[in-house]
């Protein structure tokens, strides 16, 4: 191959899916990231050298080697480094010719039998490029964390104009190519290139390992299984989903075992942070029943309450319940996409609920809650996103009875940029809190949540930024909630 004359590391580096002895290291070679093929040969592979060290200066080199970046995978690298120390901190970088990538920092998980003093995760979701800067991620890069949990909507499928919407690019407008909806593999690959060009996103990936899962916009808004929002022919949507899943795998720090086969990708998986936390990562899009009553906020009825309906699919549900039953962890953390707890939009006994969230699949939720109760899980934590707001909610055994047992807590994290700046108290703020007594907090500004676990309690710090439609916003902790181990339920700290 002719030596590269342009920097191929324009989209940064990343790591993820931490095990006690292994992490995945990722990069994508893209000297021309806004061109199909990245400005590289359409066939073959580019050899990429890599180094992993125990120090940032790379004087204590731990492992090194060469790995291919195949054109068939859009010149991405998914390097599964093994033989590492549990609970270790490492630095890594890549090289092609004279070009050296930014340095990334990563961590392995603790040993299986370890009881770490604590573990800290950031919860992020919903990064719509044209609705704001990824300011929150720049602040997240400076947090002291074990990992980032990205629970969906890493990209959006909508057309983006030359000014990049709210970003108002004038001096360097975007190529016209982005001004249409994503449909094929090239569309999705270039959309990831656009998102990953953001320096704050690159900084957050370089600072921490990420565990990722998707929601809907990585393919299409509110799709359900092979049912598209606009009821496209199944074969048409199957091809679109296959393209989207391939681009997702290419652009995330995911292992080879998760590589999609056509429109199918086995994304749900389980990790452990010693005996302190079990982390179950779900996929509530690929296997779900179609939304009842045409989607949206609707009154529940026989269609939505059909016990055969599922948001996880039967196999994933069994896997989740079996894992909870077998768990010996102090905390059982479920990272997933859409609001799990009930959300009514009126104080009346009968109220509309979201057919796209677990409210639209009450039989699925009941089976999970029954399984949690049956397994004797004392410290359940559900992490959710999707709705572009912060919520702190108690997970009730019976949401019709505010006095029923609290089985756990749910942290819903707001968006990074979707929804523009947002506001602290939207128009329905009083109504939602009154209609849902298990809802302890509601804020509609942009940001993320830092969730810290130790043997005695969970702490959720709801971070918000001052704004995202202009760069450079400040970060603050808008609220802090805690839940004591063995006595679930949120209280404000």
From TrEMBL:
Write one Pfam family the protein is assigned to.
Answer: PhoD
**Region forming the signal peptide:** none
Task: Return the InterPro entries for the record.
Answer: Metallo-depent_PP-like, PhoD-like_MPP, PhoD-like_sf, PhoD_N, Phospholipid_Metab_Enz
Reading the lineage from the top rank, the first entry is Bacteria
Q: What is this protein called?
A: Alkaline phosphatase D family protein
Q: Which residues form the PhoD-like phosphatase metallophosphatase domain?
A: 121-462
Q: Where is the Phospholipase D N-terminal domain?
A: 11-108
Highest classification ranks of the organism: Bacteria, Bacillati, Actinomycetota, Actinomycetes, Kitasatosporales
- The scientific name of the source species is Streptomyces triculaminicus
SUPFAM superfamilies reported for this sequence: Metallo-dependent phosphatases (SSF56300)
Gene3D superfamilies the record matches: PhoD-like phosphatase, Purple acid phosphatase-like, N-terminal
